[in-house]
C-alpha cells in the first residue's frame, strides 16, 4: 500500500509516524528491546503527547534475526499465528559498546545505535545486506483512520527480489505492488492462490513477514530503493534470514516454517483426470485407462474431478449412485490394474448436501455476527464453509473423508480455500482478515493429517491449489486454472518458480491448460514440460486430456516423456528427498544453482530439475526456443551431443525433443524400469558419468550419488573417482542384482578386473558389474 505522494509529501489525509531515535534500550544476553519515540527528544517536555514504538529484536535460529515493532500493544489483532519453529541451538549473543548494540546469530548481525538518528543495519561476514533508515520503522494512519504498521528495508544496486508465493506477474518483483491476499483469479492476473509473505533476494538473504492477515508489499515501487511492507494492525513482526547462498536461505526459512513432507514414489508418475465438466462414468474411466495401457503410456494415478458427487451436493462426499453405482468395486478394479485413485473435494458444504443441516446443528459451519450460518450462491447453491478453527469441526470433516479412504481412495485434490469471507465470526475468535489467508493452512492440514493417520508417513499426498506460509509441509500443489495457450505455459512456469523460491518443494500444473482446448502443437509441447515437472497431471475443464484426442503423435510424445520420467526416478526421487530434508525445490529457478552468474538472476523460461538437469520448455508453435547455457560443457540427455556455455542458444526442436541438458561432470542415476515410478531404484541401475574423459572428476574429489529408498533413506551410496587413467565406482551397500556405469562420450574404456564386462555403444562405454559387486573400475583409453 502506498502512503506517500512522491518523495516529499504524504497522500491526502495520511499521517505517518516514524521512529526517530533509540531513546532507551533493554539489553539481555540474547536479545534487546528498543524504545523509539516518533519525534526527537530534546528535553523532558518532548516526552509528553508523543507516541513510542517498541522494537524487540531476537534470534529464533542461527542466521535468523526477528524484529517486532509495536505501537499500542492492547490493540493488537488476534490473528492466527504462523508456526515459527525456533532452534534451541540458536546461541545468539548481544554485545554493547558504548552507544552501539549488536545482536549476532551465526553469521548474521543486527547493529543499532542509541546515539543519532534511527537506523538499523543487517550485515553478514562484514558486508551490509540491508538496513532500516529514518522512514523504515513506524506506523501510519490513512485517510479513513485505519492504523497500519510499516517496515522498510533497503535494496542495493542490482539487487533483485523474488518469491511472495505463486505469482504469475513478472518473475523479478522489483517495481511491483504485491498484496498478500488469497484469491481465485486464475494464472493471468496479479491475484494469487498461494500468497506467502516471504521474499528472497539475490544478495543471499530473505525476509519473512510473520503476519497471517493481509500484507502489502511495495517492492521498489513507492520508494525505489526499498522494499516496504505494511499491515493493518498495531504490531508487525518480520525475520531476516541469511545464508551463504540462496539455497541456504531457503533451508533456514523452511526450518522456521516447515519442510515439505516426502510424497510417495507413485505420486511422481502420470496422473490422468476425468476433467471438470466433461461427461464421464465408469465406462469412460475404463476407456481412458484401457486406451493408455493399449498405447503403452504408463499411468500411475486416476483422478475423479467434481462430478463424482451429485450436482448441487458438493460436498457430501457421496458417489453419484446413477453414474457410479459400484464405487467400491470400481476402485478395487482400478487398484488391481496398479492404479492409485484421487478424488476432488473442497471445504464448502452446499445447502442441498446432507451435511449442511448436520454441520449447522453441530456448530461446525462459519457464522455471521448475528449467529446465522454464512452462505452465498457463488459456486454452489447456498454453500457454507467448514469452520476449521474448531477442533470439533476438523474432526467432523476428516471423519466424512475417512470412509472414502476405507473404500480404496488413496488421496485427495483439495481444491479452493481462497474465497473466504471477512464478515464472519470464527469459533476460536480469530480476526476475520487474518483467517482469510490462513484458512487454507487449516484446511489442508486437516486433510493431510487424516492421510498421515490412515496411510502413514511417506504415503500421504494432496493435490492442493491454495496455500500460505507453511503450506509447503502438505505437498503437492498445482498451479490452478490456466488458459490453453503458450502464454499460459510461461505464466504457469513463472508461478511455479516463484513458489519454489517461497519454500515449496513440489509443484504441478494442468498439462494442456485448464480453460479451453489446446491445439495438438501446444498439447505436445506442454506434455514435455509437464512430464519434466516434479508432478505431472493431465487435466482440463470442458474437454478430455487423453492424448489420442489430439493426434497420434501426442500419444507418442506422452509415451516417450512418461517413460523417460519413470526411468529418471532414481534421480528425481533423490531431488525429492533433498526438498524434504533441506527445503530446496525439485524445480529450481536458475538463480538457485548459479547464484554467481548474473544472467541466471533474470531467467524465468527455463529451470533446473534437481541439481543436474536443465530444462527449457518450448514456448512456440514452430518449435523455436531461446535459452541460456551456464559455463561449462553440457550434454544433451536425449542425444548425447555437447553444448558449451556460457551463452545464449536459439534452436528449433521437434515435438519429441526440447533443450534438456545434463550439467558438466554430473553423475546421473537412471533406473532400469520405465513403466512405473515406484520400484527398487538400485535394481539394474545405470550411473551415467559425464565428463569422465576430462580432469574435473579428479580435481573435485570423488562424486557422491545417493540412490534413495521409498522412505527417503539411502538404498545405496556410490562414490565415483578417477586417477590419471581410470574411473572407479564404489557402492555401499552393493546392489543385490547388479548395476552399470556408462562413461558418456568415452569410447574404448577397458575393465580393470575380469568381473566387469564392457561394451561400446549407447553414447560411450557401458560397464556391467555383477550382482553383489561393490566396486567397478575402468581404465580410460
Automatic annotation (TrEMBL):
Q: Which UniProt keywords apply?
A: Glycosidase, Hydrolase
Recall the taxonomic lineage recorded for the source organism.
Bacteria, Bacillati, Actinomycetota, Actinomycetes, Streptosporangiales
Please indicate which superkingdom the organism of origin belongs to.
Answer: Bacteria
Query: Which residue numbers delimit the Glycoside hydrolase family 31 N-terminal domain?
Result: 59-218
**Molecular-function GO term, any one:** alpha-D-xyloside xylohydrolase
Pfam families under this entry?
Answer: Gal_mutarotas_2 (PF13802), Glyco_hydro_31_2nd (PF01055), Glyco_hydro_31_3rd (PF21365)
Q: What is this protein called?
A: Alpha-xylosidase
Q: Which gene codes for it?
A: yicI
Q: Which family does it belong to?
A: Belongs to the glycosyl hydrolase 31 family.
Where the record annotates domain Glycoside hydrolase family 31 TIM barrel, the positions are 260-573
Name its species: Nocardiopsis codii
Tell me its EC number(s), please: 3.2.1.177
Domain Glycosyl hydrolase family 31 C-terminal, by residue range, is: 583-668
Keyword Nucleotide-binding among record annotations: no
